[in-house]
Amino acid sequence: MSQVKTVEGRGIPLVGNDIDTDRIIPARFLRCVTFDGLGEQAFADDRTQTKGEHPFDQPQYQGANILVVNGNFGCGSSREHAPQALAKWGIQAIVGESYAEIFFGNCVAIGIPCVTAPTEMIQTLQTILQNNPQAPMRVDVEGMQVHCGDFIASVSISEGIRQMLTTGTWDSCGQLIAQVEKIQTTATQLPYIQWGSRVAS
């Protein structure tokens, strides 16, 4: 199973409250059969309007994997395509003031920790990243801290979610694969499975 204890890399600041899921991935891209290719369309309309000035377009933030956001990020519709688009772009963790509940749950379901910090700390992080896009950044899910250059701040996430991420139990598919022998043993003991086998034979 995939344990998420720390995420290291570089940060990308995205300033603004109430950035909704329609801005993260516009509705016209929801008709895809798989999530492949969604990363290229993350913030498609915002990026068109800002004509290359959006952080996801700016060269200094290419390859960044930790998103720093403000309040109520991911509000609006419950589309799971939003965190999938961010993940396909390369985002592996989000640090923010607050998140819409369903967006938060959809992120956890694919192993993206969404930690929170007070407004002042988020603004400090965003300023650091605007002034020094190459600053190394680390989200410590076990220790509940974020490091950005020389700056260190405490972050928070519910204890249940923290344990799910650090132990790997967020990964439902991974749990099934890890327990495949037990699942097969249980399946052979189920009367309706045995009955189905007799009918098939």
Topology, pairings included?
Elements: E1 6-13, H1 21-24, H2 44-50, E2 66-68, H3 81-89, E3 93-96, H4 101-109, E4 114-116, H5 119-131, E5 136-140, E6 145-148, E7 151-154, H6 159-167, H7 172-178, H8 180-188, H9 191-200
Parallel strand pairs: 1-2, 2-3, 3-4
Antiparallel strand pairs: 1-5, 5-6, 6-7
Features:
201 residues, alpha/beta, Aconitase, domain 4, seven-stranded mixed β-sheet, 9 helices, disordered C terminus
Derived structural class: alpha/beta
Please indicate the percent range of residues in DSSP E strands (runs of 2 or more): 15-25%
Mean pLDDT: 90
Shape designation: globular
Count the E strands: 7
Q: Which bin fits the share of residues in helices?
A: 25-40%
Strand order, largest beta sheet: 4-3-2-1-5-6-7
How many discrete domains? Answer: 2
Describe the structure.
With 201 residues, the protein is α/β, with parallel strands linked by helices. The chain has two domains: 6-170, Aconitase, domain 4 (Alpha-Beta Barrel), CATH 3.20.19.10; 173-201, no CATH class. Helix content is 38%, strand content 15%. The protein contains nine helices and seven strands. It has helices spanning 21-24, 44-50, 81-89, 101-109, 119-131, 159-167, 172-178, 180-188, 191-200; strands at 6-13, 66-68, 93-96, 114-116, 136-140, 145-148, 151-154. Strands 4-3-2-1-5-6-7 form a seven-stranded mixed β-sheet. Strand 5 (136-140) and strand 6 (145-148) form a beta hairpin. The longest helix is centred in the middle third of the chain and has 13 residues, at 119-131. The chain is globular, with a radius of gyration of 20 Å. Residues 195-201 have low confidence and may be disordered.
